[in-house]
Amino acid sequence: MSVVSKLLGVVMSALGLFIFWWGWGTSGQLVWSFVGMFVMAMGFTLLTAGRQQKEEKPPPPTVTEIRCGSCDFKEIRDFQKGDYVLQTVEATCPKCQGSMTIEGVYIVREDSEDKDKI
Ligand SMILES: [Zn+2]
After folding, report:
1. How far is the CA of 109 from the centre of ligand 1 (A)?
2. Cβ-count burial of 90 within 10 angstroms (0-12 exposed, 13-18 middle, 19+ buried)?
3. What SS3 state is found at 57?
C-alpha cells in the first residue's frame, strides 16, 4: 500500500504539473490550471500519507522476569497482560518446584541492551 500510494503520488504530482503547464497557453487556461493544481494536491496528499505511515512504530517488546523464592532461579519470559511486580505466578520452579514471583517488568530496547524498569 505504502509503495503503491507513493508511486501514485509521484505520478499524480507530475501529471498535475504537466496539465498546469500544458493548459497555460490554451483558451481554457483557468480550468486547466485548476485541474492541474487539484491533481497535484491529490498526489502530495498521497505522498504525505505514505510518509506518516512509515513513522509508526510497533510497541516495544516487554519481558517479565520471574524469580524462585527458594533457590534464586531466574527466568525471563514475554510480558503477559496482568503481570505485575511481586505477583505470584502459577508456574512452579523447574528446579525445586517452589513458588515463583515476578521480580520485574522490563521494556527491551532495540538500539541498546539497557533495560528500562517500569
Ligand atoms: Zn527454585
Report:
1. 29
2. exposed
3. coil
| SS3 state of residue 46 | helix
Residue type, 6: K
89 compared with 55, residue with greater pLDDT: 89
Give me the residues near ligand 1 (ion), CB cutoff below 5 Å.
68, 70-71, 73, 93, 95-96, 98
- The whole-angstrom separation of Cα 22 and Cα 29 is 9
Going from the Cα of 74 to the center of ligand 1, the distance in angstroms, rounded, reads 8
Ligand 1 centroid to 67 CA: how many Å? 8
State yes or no: pLDDT of 109 exceeds 70: yes
Cα–ligand 1 centroid distance for 116 (angstroms) = 26
Query: What three-state secondary structure class fits 26?
Result: coil
CA 63 / ligand 1 centre spacing (Å): 20
Full-prediction pTM beyond 0.70? no
Separation of alpha carbons 76 and 56, rounded Å: 28
pLDDT tens readout for residues 30-53: 888 889 899 999 998 888 875 655
